[in-house]
Each structure stands twice: as structure tokens, then as C-alpha cells.
Amino acid sequence: MEFFNNHRKLFTTALFMFVALTIIVALKPAINNQENNSPLPNAEPLNKVEMAGKKVYISEGCVACHTQQVRNVEMDEVWGKRPGIAADYANIRRTDFWRNTATLMGTERTGPDLTNVGNRQPSLAWNLLHLYQPRAVVKESIMPAYPWLFEIKDSVGVEDVEVIVPEEYRKTDKGKVVATQKVLDLVAYLQSLKQTPLTNESDNPEFLYKKKKEPEFLKEKVGSLDGKALYASNCQSCHQANGEGLKGAFPPLKGSSIVLGDDLELLVSIIMLGYDARPEYAVMNAVGKDNGLTPEEITAIINHEKTSWGNDAQTVSTEEVKKIVEFIELTSGK
Ligand code: HEC
Ligand code: HEC
Asked: Looking at residue 221, what is its pLDDT?
């Protein structure tokens, strides 16, 4: 056969097939990706500090236990408002010339998914203490402590961020626990992890395999909200399950004059808008507003606080709380 004996024809054909395959297998998909996956319009790229924090996240191996992907199955609904889409990852670039892209989507969820942790846990004080010693804020935590991200100093400088650690969680070395730049960067990165809302919420992809709606007659039975469970998911990480808080960081609600007192407006406003009244405690962020708590849920939480841990105060009604919440929303320009 003449074709197989002609090196020109052979080489040209092979070259042509090689180029054609490269276009089909590599170039076309890349162009398709580039055209169809730009970042969402209101997605914010990481700033310098957050980017430095991401590198700490990578080097400390946090991805071993934490995912950053909300799958489109119902059980993932707690980790974000909508399932993740390709555009959520479109801002991610190569780490550097030598290292490939670190998407940090993760494969293992020993700890919670962190896609939206910036909204769920925005408190600097909580994050620092949690990284210094997770068990100081979450007793049952199996997350490792990262004490090497902190320094022990004799005195605290003006620029230093001190971490108040309860006595029983201190190492033997005395002195002040001060956050290093590394851990501040890391927390900035954690605080930047917020799921970007789509411009049009009705475009949100659905979570699949939803359980059938509860029949109406069942709903009535379980109609009243569980204040204890709501407290556990919204307040307990700081004020603790026993309501005693943590000395020097989070005040006790057990025996608190604000919780036991009659100034409901103050109590509701603390829950909705946060609180920063005293230097000996950290700052409470706007938990109610951030977590979208409804007046019914706030009432359930307040009544749980007023009647637990030995607290024994008059409970309040949803109507009273609702009025105050509406007033707060009106004046705080929600
Ligand atoms: C051995 C597994 C493991 C590793 C490694 C790990 N974590 Fe965790 N993480 C957990 C577990 C379990 C929890 C839930 C209990 C808790 O809050 O401590 C958690 C909770 C968290 C939370 C709170 C999430 C929420 O929804 O409130 C943050 C933030 C966090 N981890 C950040 C990190 C960072 C940053 C690193 C790396 C420096 C890291 N974790 C490494 C297991 C881990
Ligand atoms: C991120 C940590 C954090 C979370 C979560 C949190 N708080 Fe707080 N809370 C604080 C801090 C810190 C203070 C003290 C602020 C100050 O006095 O400067 C505080 C103060 C309070 C006070 C005033 C207590 C007193 O006697 O002074 C009440 C009441 C309160 N919080 C209720 C709640 C409720 C209810 C929730 C859940 C819906 C909640 N907090 C969630 C950190 C938190």
C-alpha cells in the first residue's frame, strides 16, 4: 500500500489527527468552561488577607475534615440556602505557577461544611478561641487544637489581639494568649466564606429527594417551637448548654439580670442586633438578623432562657415580641 510507505502522508495524517483530538478533548471543553462559568455577579474575590488565610487553611490541612460544597440533596439544606453550582468556584485560580488550583471542596465531612460559615459564625472572638482550643466552646468537639497559631506574651501590645482562654483550657505556661497574623488571616478567610445569593432567588436550583410534606394534622400537634433546640443551634456555641457562658468571653444567661428582668425591648434587641456593652466580654454579633430568626423563634428562645438553668421568670408571648421585632426592623433599616 502506497500510503504506509509514504512518510509525508503518514506524518501529515497523524499530525492532523493529533491536532483534531487536542481541539475536541482539551481546547473545546476549556473554552466552553470559560464562556459558561464566570463568577456570579455579586461574588466577591478574596482580598489579600483572606487569600493569605486560605493558604493557612491549606497548610494546616483543614480540608481533611471540612467540605466546601452544598450538594443538591435534602440533607445538605442546613449548609446553605441553595445547592452549590459551578459558578461558585469560578473565582478560584491556580495557587501559583507550580501548584494547581485548590478548590477545597473536600471529600470528608468529619466537621461541618464551611461554604457558609462566614454567615453562620461571624464572631472573631469565638473563632479565635475555637481554633486555640475547640473544647473551650464546644465541649464534645473532636477538632484538633491549633495552639501553634498563637503566641504567649508577657504583656499585650496595642496592636495585639488577645484571646481570653478560660483557666482550665490554658496550657501550663502563664502569660497572655495573643493571636498571630497567621490565625487572624485564617479567621478572615473563614469569615469570607459566605454563599453568594443568586440575583434572582427563584433561579435557585432545588434540593432533591425532599421528604413529603408533613400532613396537616401532624403539624398542629408539633406546632409549638422547641426553644431548647433553637437555643442549641443559635446561642449555645457561645453561651453554652448550661447557660453559664465562658468567663472573660461570653456572659452567663443563668441568673442574668437582663434575661430575668422585664426590659423585653432590650432582650429582643440584643438577640436581633447583637450587643457590645462591656469591655470584659467579646462582641455579640446580630445573631437574630444574621440567622433570620422569626418572632416565633425568638419568643421560644427567650422563654427557654427565662425558665432554664434555675432561671424562673415570667414567660413572654409572641405578640409582645413580634411588635418589638417589627419596630426594630423598621428603625434599623432592614
Ligand atoms: C479532625 C477533623 C477536623 C480538622 C482537621 C479540623 N476540624 Fe474544624 N471542626 C471539626 C468538627 C468535628 C467540628 C464541629 C465541632 C466544633 O465546632 O468544634 C468543627 C468545627 C469547625 C468550625 C465551626 C463550624 C460551624 O458550623 O460552627 C470551624 C469554623 C472550623 N471547624 C474550622 C476549622 C479550621 C480552620 C481548621 C484547620 C485549621 C479545622 N477546622 C480543622 C473537625 C475538624
Ligand atoms: C458569637 C457568640 C454569641 C452568640 C452566638 C450569642 N451571643 Fe449573646 N452575647 C455574646 C456576648 C459576647 C455578649 C456580651 C456582650 C457585651 O456585654 O459586651 C452577649 C450578651 C448576651 C445577653 C446579655 C446578657 C447579660 O446579662 O448581659 C443576652 C441576653 C444574650 N447575649 C442572648 C443571646 C441569645 C438569646 C443568643 C441566641 C439567639 C445569643 N445571645 C447568641 C455572644 C454571643
From this structure: 44
* Grid coordinates belonging to 169: 483550657
Q: Is the CB of 182 under 6 A from ligand 1?
A: no
**Is the Cβ–Cβ distance between 236 and 229 less than 8 Å?**
no
Instruction: State the Cα–Cα distance between residues 17 and 318, nearest whole angstrom.
Output: 73
Give the C-alpha separation, 245 to 252, whole Å.
4
C-alpha cell of residue 198: 443568586
Which ligand 1 atom minimizes the distance to the CA of 186? 35
Tens digits of per-residue pLDDT, 31-63?
998 888 889 999 999 999 999 999 999 999 999
Distance CA 282, CA 151 (A): 19
Q: What is the C-alpha to C-alpha distance for residues 266 and 330, in angstroms, rounded to an integer?
A: 16
Atom from ligand 1 closest to the CA of residue 130: 18
- Measured CA to CA, the distance from residue 319 to residue 334 in angstroms comes to 20
Question: For residue 268, which of 298, 292, 236, 308 has the smallest C-alpha distance?
Answer: 298
d(CA 247, CA 282): 10
CB of 271 closer than 8 Å to CB of 253: no
Ligand 2 contacts (CB < 6 A) are 123, 126, 234-235, 237-239, 250-251, 253, 256, 258-259, 267, 270-271, 275-278, 281-285, 287-288, 301, 305
Longest Cα pair distance anywhere in the chain, in angstroms? 101
Residue nearest to atom 23 of ligand 2 (CA): 258
Compute the mean pLDDT over every residue in the chain, rounded to the nearest whole number.
Answer: 91
Cα(99) to centroid of ligand 1, in Å? Answer: 25
Q: Is the CB of 147 under 6 A from ligand 1?
A: no
